[in-house]
Amino acid sequence: MKIATFNINGIKARLPRLKEWLKETRPTVACLQEIKTQDEGFPADEFEALGYKSIWHGQKGFNGVAILADGIEPVETQRGLPGDPDDEQARYLEADVAGVRVASIYLPNGNPQPGPKFDYKLTWMERLRKHAASLWAQEIPTALVGDFNVIPEDKDVWSPKAMASDALMQPESRDAYARLLADGWTDAVDTLNPCGGVWTFWDYQAGAWPRDHGFRIDHLLLSPELADRLSAAGVDKEHRGRERASDHAPVWVALED
């Protein structure tokens, strides 16, 4: 089973690249972030034509998450992250696919910091940890995947100094991510690449892509039931270099049956 995550940065603008990636790599499950469309604008028919069933949680102009499954209907289990009934941002979608609980996550960026956006990020991360703990306690085979907007360690960024003031690598952000892992979740990419140097995002500005000035913020966290099945993980880096590409590359994990 192959589970992938891809911050597509606007599903309408990137649809040709997204379909291209699906056809070339054929993940069992593809979790998308930043679809940036209302529900009625989601191109489900385009994915159906490729053999993918889909569910989505949209929002006008920004945010938005989706889950695609190859020949399988995702069974939605949670829309929106619990813990704040007033939070209307479309950042969390969860479904059962082939015996695995999969969550597509678009965690708040938090910039500028300090300020209300950073406070929202940290509060959101605590809500995520609480909900994740409930899934973990039920021993549901679960993958929490998506754009976490956290650079976990200095080894996960091309230049710690260049990103020092960014919300993505503030001590509070890193501590919140570390607490999540300490609850029993396995960071698949980090586990198989302990020396770091793996990037999933390259900014459009300042020649970041050709200079390979990137960092790792797209993560796949596995519950113990899935961590035991971990066989491979990687980044489809080449797709970042294609015409009109997202600023993120797809990231994936392979699980033994």
UniProtKB/TrEMBL annotation:
- Record's keyword annotation contains Magnesium: yes
Q: Which SUPFAM superfamilies match?
A: DNase I-like (SSF56219)
Keywords, A to Z, come to: Hydrolase, Magnesium, Metal-binding
The EC number(s) attached to this protein equal: 3.1.11.2
Query: Which Gene Ontology terms cover its molecular function?
Result: double-stranded DNA 3'-5' DNA exonuclease activity
- Does Magnesium appear among the keywords? yes
Top-rank taxon of the source lineage equals: Bacteria
Q: Which CDD domains match?
A: ExoIII-like_AP-endo
The protein's name: Exodeoxyribonuclease III
The organism encoding this protein is Qipengyuania benthica
Q: Which gene encodes it?
A: xth
